[in-house]
Amino acid sequence: MKVQAAVTREKGKFEIETVELAEPKAGEVLVKLVASGICHTDTAVIEQYLPVVFPMVAGHEGVGVIEKVGPGVSALKPGDRVILTFPSCGVCEHCQEGHPYSCDDNFNMFFGGNYRDGTKRMTDAHGTEIGVLFGQSSFATYAVANQDNAIKVDVDTDELKALCSLGCGVQTGAGAVLNRMKPRPGSSIAVFGCGAVGLAGIMAAKIAGCSTIIAIHGSKGREEALAFGATHTINGRKEDTVARIKEITGGKGVNYALESSGQPPLAVSMLDSMAKEGLAVTVSVTANAEVPIKLEPQIMNPSVTFAGCVEGHSNPKVFIPELVKFYKEGKLPVDKMCKYYKFEEIEKAFEDSHTGGVLKPVIVF
């Protein structure tokens, strides 16, 4: 079928084209997209900070309505409203144990340009195959996805557009807190970065019952952090972040910390801010960046754990419905982060995202 898609053929550029989208294969679904969020990872792909091959259609926070199902799909049907999320191989030990975020082939599944079976679904007018991102390529009017990364949700179609980020950004930030950290009620947490991922972490920390929630922001983000649940804020560009965290916590440091800024040096500041036996988690896309870590004073002596976390340590079939429940209860007001753009305004949406003018740009089809 003919669909409209934002195709990237060279670094830093994309153009809306008419392309051919193949029918869903066994275990797959065809989704008419309602909207797609724009995430930092999309920029990393389009700018080739990650080793992707063009042409490719980016977009990995799609939401929509199932229009057709392929052979063997039984849990989903036409008319179901779904949030598209990250893909996994489905057969490795981690996937079989319900840990798809640690799929043995996750990097290739995310960025390799193919579906599970090693093939593509899009071709251009010349018959050239177009790579898929995250098993969905949601910067298009339709998408084919595996049934495992199409999560059925009980919301109205109009509500779907506000929930794009549950497929990646919010799932990452909230999951890092609720699934990876599992903070104790009354504990303290610092969140480095107040973009959509960091703010999701702040909301999750409030849900978890953290009593001290410290948000480290840049030139923007203070008001948003306070609105979403931060008890304290620190301007990381003007204040001594580590000293302020120690001051707020009575010299102890924080029990938990989340680094979501994408700025590698802040991982070091995070480690310096930890209390004894603290857990520091990084979720940033920083490619091959390296930072100096002093093993004894920062890790060993204080018994601090420094952990990575992919896609919020989430089993999406379980966690995304939980996030929707929090949203309905008013505990996860992700709709307040969104600004909506028409598909033909996608360049403006990226521009606003890069300048910090909007927290979560959402393309509406």
From TrEMBL:
Span of domain Enoyl reductase (ER): 12-363
Pfam families for the chain: ADH_N, ADH_zinc_N
PROSITE patterns per UniProt: ADH_ZINC
GO biological process: formaldehyde catabolic process
CC terms in the record's Gene Ontology section: cytosol
Protein name per the record: Aryl-alcohol dehydrogenase
Molecular function terms from GO: S-(hydroxymethyl)glutathione dehydrogenase [NAD(P)+] activity; zinc ion binding
Keywords: Metal-binding, NAD, Oxidoreductase, Zinc
InterPro entries associated with the record: ADH-like_C, ADH-like_N, ADH_Zn_CS, ER, GroES-like_sf, NAD(P)-bd_dom_sf
Family: Belongs to the zinc-containing alcohol dehydrogenase family.
Cofactors: Zn(2+)
